[in-house]
Structures are given as C-alpha cells and as structure tokens.
Amino acid sequence: MGTADSKKDVLHVEGGKPLSGTIKVRGAKNLVSKAMVAALLAPGTSVLKNVPEIRDVSVVSDLLRLHGVDVNFDGENGIVAIDATKVYLADVADVDTLSGSSRIPILFSGPLVHRLGEAFIPSLGGCNIGGRPIDFHLETLRKLGAKVDKEHTDGVHITAPDGLKGAKIHLPYPSVGATEQTLLAAVLADGRTELSGAATEPEIMDLVAILQKMGAIISVDVDRTFRIEGVKELKGYTHTALPDRIEAASWASAALATRGDIFVKGATQPDMTTFLNVFRKIGGEFDIRDNGIRFWHPGGDLHPIALETDVHPGFMTDWQQPLVVALTQANGLSTMHETVYENRFGFTEPLIEMGATVQLYRECLGALPCRFQQRNFKHSAVIFGPTPLTGRDIEVPDLRGGFSHLIAALTANGPSNVHGISLIDRGYADFRGKLFALGAKIG
Ligand code: EPZ
C-alpha cells in the first residue's frame, strides 16, 4: 500500500521518555467493519455502538453508501446507524475506486448475493504481511452454490441466480476472514451449513452474537465446527462492539518498552488472558479494573521469552509486532515463531538499524512445525536484549508494524521521523491525541 510522504504524513518523535497516563480504546476494528457488513443482510436499521474513528470504518461506510445504504456515523459518541432498506448494485467503476484500501469488500459477497443476486468485489488491499490470498473465501462461496467469475481484471463477479444453499465446508486453515465469509453467506442460505476447521476469535464470536440478534441460528461445537441453519429473513440489530484487544495490547507493549505506565480504559480481561500471561512472564505489571486495565513497567530487568503466534486462543499475530519492540529491551534471548503470516517480520529491519539485535530464520523456532516449515519464509525471529535504540528516519510498512515503529521511536534516544504515519489511522483512532495525553514528545 502506498504512503503519501507529505509533511502531514510524518511524525517527529523525541524518544526516551516513559509514556504515562490514561487513554481509551473503543470497539475492535476487526469486529466493527464486519458488523457493518452484517447490517446489509437485513432491510431496516442496525445500530452499532463503541465504534472507533478509524479509516477502516470510513472505507466500509463508503462501500455501503455506494450500494445505496444509508450510513450515519456519530464519531463523537461512537455510534453508527446503518439503514439497509434500500440496496442496489454499485457502479463497478465506483467500487473499483475503493479497491486496494481494505480486506473487507470480499465480505460483501454473501450479503449482496442474498439481497441482489450478484456482487462485484474489487481487488483487495490490507497490510502487506504475506500473500493474503482469498482462495478459501471463493471456495466457500462456490460450495454454497455461487458462481465466481474472476474474468474481470480488477475484481471478482459473483452470482447465484438460484440463491445460496447450505453446504458442508472445511477450511484448510482456520482463517478469520473465511469463517466470517461463511457465516455471512450461510445465515440466509437455504438449508444447513456445517463449517469445520473454523476460527473462533472473540471478534468472530461477537459477530455470531450480532447475527443471532438479527434472527440467525448458529451453534459452535468444541472442535471449532459451526453449524448454521439458514433462515428466510433477518432484521436489524443493536449491539455494542467488544473492545479492541489488539489496540489495548499495543499500548501495553508501549508501556513496557518505554518503561511507562498506561491505563487503557475500555480494555477487558477475558479476551486478553493469553497476552496478560505473556506480559506478566516478561516482567510487566498489570491491574485489572472495572473500567479498564493499567499496564506498567515496575523497574528492573524485563525477562526474555520463547513465544509463538497462533489462532485463538493462542498468542495473536497482531500482538506480535508491538511486543517484539518491548523484547528488544528484555535481558537475554527471546524467540518469536510467527505461524499465521509468512512475512510478518519485515518491520524488524528498521529496528536493527536503530540498534536492536534481531535475527530472522526460515526454520520453525517453536514447539510445533507450522505451515511455513521447509518453505522459503523467514518466519522466526531471535531477539537479543537489552539494546539501547537510537532515533532515525523510519518508513511505516503496515498497520501493526507501523505502530511498532512508533513504539521504537518513543523508546529510542534522540529524534526520529516516522514517515507514512497516516497508515496507522486505519486501526488506531486518534493515536496522536493519545500520545500527547501520555506525555509523548511528538510534533
Ligand atoms: C484478520 O485477517 C484480521 N483482519 C487480521 O488483522 C489478523 O491478523 C488476522 O485475521 C488473523 O487474526 C481483519 O479482521 C480485517 P486470515 P484475515 O484469513 O481474515 C491465509 C490487523 O492488523 N489465508 O485469518 O485476512 C492467510 O494468508 C489485521 O488488524 C489463505 O491462505 O486473516 C494467512 O496466512 C492484519 N487463504 C492465514 O490464512 C484465504 O483465502 C490467516 O488469515 C484466507 C486466508
């Protein structure tokens, strides 16, 4: 994804000062965008609360509007009202203008096919952290009876003249997006759908809660199999989005790396237990309160750790990048085995230039061999610390990698210029305001 290197797109950071204070997180980016798509399934109005002011929300709003849907976002109060009574097929050229800006358009497939009999999905954007194919999504739609035409050079045309029909589907890997794709397409399909090998991230379960409020019948077995009984129609919903556990963990890692103390209002414990265990093992302290979680560095040395990312309930891949910056400050050798994306360590290169000692390996440096074993991907990292970091010019590579660079710049001695900073607006609402509130020296 490109980054406009205008003056506005560069953040000057004077590092070396602990971040300290209170900030607030709202609903999870990775639920909110999907919940907005779910509204498309029913004529009438849906209301989503706790919505953050991030670019992914505006991209989905624009995409919904192009399809005739009325979207009203009260950013101050975080409430979005979506009236999907009227839905029409958007102009292909208009939809194309949004191509490359997000992964979400592919999830419009099922709802649009149900409402209109067809859908056009532009070629997708999202973070450059691996190949990120959509083969599982398309296979799922085919199994449900859709005809998928990839002829169009810039996207995919999906039709289902006879409607979608329940099917037995197995995912070769528990993909978050493909699980959501199946749920959004199967709820109104004719008959039953069985989806095995699915992902069960808390954001997916919150989407299931929304679909249930809309009238869907969905159950999940202990072996990660969803069973969906298609219903004839759904109605609008009112829902409060679950908090953003990725943003909360990002600020927690920032507190650890800068030897700071951050109270993350709105963060909740249940969906963060895996992160909290790791945070404690490294030597971070936290205090869980009714209205949020306080994270702080208690002084002394941080401890190294051997960790691997995994699907839920494992350690999230999106927690990995910010935590690696904190691990550059731990005393000893840490290992991080990335098993979800094949290419999520590109962000470590600037860290090394800032003084970190990080080495990447093609081998699986974890308890279990992963899908990337014997393939040419440097998907394991060894981090040796503590290493003082020195400020420099950095180019933001992707959303989480970019936030990690920001943490590194805040941890480093001396000034840094972080370029392409607007990329971070995709998933971190008002991060500049939050940094000011935490006493960061930025400009
Ligand atoms: C979601 O992406 C999130 N994005 C990601 O967050 C998150 O990292 C990821 O889930 C894993 O938790 C959103 O929710 C918008 P996947 P998604 O399908 O659904 C492979 C962030 O920073 N795969 O679970 O696109 C894929 O290449 C973002 O907030 C296929 O091979 O992820 C990857 O290796 C980054 N074929 C793995 O599965 C497919 O058709 C997991 O991807 C689909 C996926």
Descriptive notes:
Helices cover 29% and strands 23% of the residues. The chain contains 13 helices and 23 strands. A 4-stranded mixed sheet has the order 21-22-1-23, covered by helices on one side. With 443 residues, it is an alpha+beta fold. The site of ligand EPZ has 26 residues, from helix 1, helix 5, helix 6, helix 10 and helix 12.
Characterize this entry briefly.
Helix content is 29%, strand content 23%.
- Radius of gyration over all CA atoms, rounded: 22 Å
- Give the quaternary arrangement of the chains: single chain
Shape: globular
The level of helicity is 25-40%
Report the total helices. 13
Q: Any ligands, ions or cofactors bound here, and which? A: ligand EPZ
DSSP strand tally: 23
Distance between the termini: 24 Å
Can you give keywords for this protein?
single chain; 443 residues; alpha+beta; 4-stranded mixed beta sheet; 23 strands; 29% helix; globular; binds ligand EPZ
Task: Summarize the SSE layout with pairings.
Blueprint: E1 10-14, E2 20-24, H1 29-38, E3 45-49, H2 55-66, E4 70-74, E5 79-83, H3 92-97, H4 109-116, E6 118-122, H5 135-143, E7 147-149, E8 155-159, E9 168-170, H6 176-186, E10 192-196, H7 202-214, E11 217-220, E12 226-229, E13 238-240, H8 245-257, E14 261-265, H9 273-282, E15 285-289, E16 292-296, E17 306-308, H10 317-327, E18 332-337, H11 348-353, E19 357-361, E20 380-385, E21 393-395, H12 399-411, E22 415-419, H13 431-437, E23 441-442
Parallel strand pairs: 2-14, 3-13, 9-10, 17-18, 21-22
Antiparallel strand pairs: 1-22, 1-23, 3-5, 4-5, 6-8, 7-8, 10-12, 11-12, 14-16, 15-16, 18-20, 19-20
Bound molecules: ligand EPZ.
